[in-house]
Amino acid sequence: MLLTLQAAFTLFQITISGAVIDTFNNQEPLIQPYNALDCPIDIPLSCSNKTEVENSCCFEYPSGIFLQAQFWDARPSVGPKDMFTMHGVWPDRCDGSYDQFCRLFSPIKSARAILEQFGENQLLDEMDRVWKNIRGNDDYLWVHEFNKHGTCMNTLKPSCYDQGNYRENQNVVDFYKRSMQLFKTLPTYQWLAQSGIVPSNSKLYTREEIESSLEEHFGHPVFVSCRGNMLQEVWYFYKLHGSIVAGDFVPIDTVRASRCPSKGVRYLPK
Ligand SMILES: *[C@@H]1O[C@H](CO)[C@@H](O)[C@H](O)[C@H]1NC(C)=O
């Protein structure tokens, strides 16, 4: 199992990370397999342990609930017309409260500069398309997301990486990579459309219609948020099995209750 994981991870790195290409020149992998790959398979799910978990590089604590938040920005309209855009991946504590701007590691100034440095051009192209700031400066939003939320993910600490081979900001790259991977598994627009819920200037939806369509696809109740009566965000909840980099996000029910009106919800076209 360990081998399979390791092989899958290596493959993933070679496919996605331009930085790893350097490894072929000096034979030695530039980025060693992440220590978290050595995590025991029977590590408990985050926020579900009955006893202390020693290796915190394998276990997210104290923030073990994760949300993948997506925007529907119709006024003003931002991003592809048939897609909810990426807001971020946030860690919550097990009781639903949350930490932010943690000091586990240093804040960054430009996500774009770091991703360019690592040769992550494909990832950057994807982020440019779907990780949009309604105020226009996407890098500003990406930086904010890492500094506010990413810094509270303890398995992303530089000390969780193989020190001989850790390249500064690899954890930052991993944060964006894993966030985008998770986002891509959640095609909110298509899920709603399959239930006949499509953007409209005139049609009104009930909150329940929207919630049950998304629950059907995600397998668990999700959180929908509105601005006034306009649908504005969808949040999907997870616990984590293992580390951010190599672990599995396991879907759970929303831990928050929606405050969207129960009837007359607008889902406006972009
Ligand atoms: C779960 O693990 C964390 C980290 O080791 C520990 O601090 C916490 O007390 C554990 N929770 C329970 C209920 O034992």
From TrEMBL:
<comment type="function">
    <text>Rnase which modulates cell survival under stress conditions. Released from the vacuole to the cytoplasm during stress to promote tRNA and rRNA cleavage and to activate separately a downstream pathway that promotes cell death. Involved in cell size, vacuolar morphology and growth at high temperatures and high salt concentration.</text>
</comment>
<keyword id="KW-0926">Vacuole</keyword>
<dbReference type="InterPro" id="IPR001568">
    <property type="entry name" value="RNase_T2-like"/>
</dbReference>
<keyword id="KW-0456">Lyase</keyword>
<keyword id="KW-0540">Nuclease</keyword>
<keyword id="KW-0325">Glycoprotein</keyword>
<feature type="active site">
    <location>
        <position position="87"/>
    </location>
</feature>
<feature type="active site">
    <location>
        <position position="145"/>
    </location>
</feature>
<keyword id="KW-0378">Hydrolase</keyword>
<dbReference type="GO" id="GO:0005775">
    <property type="term" value="C:vacuolar lumen"/>
</dbReference>
<dbReference type="GO" id="GO:0016787">
    <property type="term" value="F:hydrolase activity"/>
</dbReference>
<dbReference type="GO" id="GO:0003723">
    <property type="term" value="F:RNA binding"/>
</dbReference>
<comment type="similarity">
    <text>Belongs to the RNase T2 family.</text>
</comment>
<dbReference type="Pfam" id="PF00445">
    <property type="entry name" value="Ribonuclease_T2"/>
</dbReference>
<dbReference type="InterPro" id="IPR036430">
    <property type="entry name" value="RNase_T2-like_sf"/>
</dbReference>
<keyword id="KW-1015">Disulfide bond</keyword>
<dbReference type="GO" id="GO:0006401">
    <property type="term" value="P:RNA catabolic process"/>
</dbReference>
<keyword id="KW-0732">Signal</keyword>
<feature type="active site">
    <location>
        <position position="149"/>
    </location>
</feature>
<protein>
    <recommendedName>
        <fullName>ribonuclease T2</fullName>
        <ecNumber>4.6.1.19</ecNumber>
    </recommendedName>
</protein>
<dbReference type="GO" id="GO:0005576">
    <property type="term" value="C:extracellular region"/>
</dbReference>
<dbReference type="InterPro" id="IPR033130">
    <property type="entry name" value="RNase_T2_His_AS_2"/>
</dbReference>
<dbReference type="InterPro" id="IPR033697">
    <property type="entry name" value="Ribonuclease_T2_eukaryotic"/>
</dbReference>
<feature type="signal peptide">
    <location>
        <begin position="1"/>
        <end position="19"/>
    </location>
</feature>
<dbReference type="GO" id="GO:0033897">
    <property type="term" value="F:ribonuclease T2 activity"/>
</dbReference>
<keyword id="KW-0255">Endonuclease</keyword>
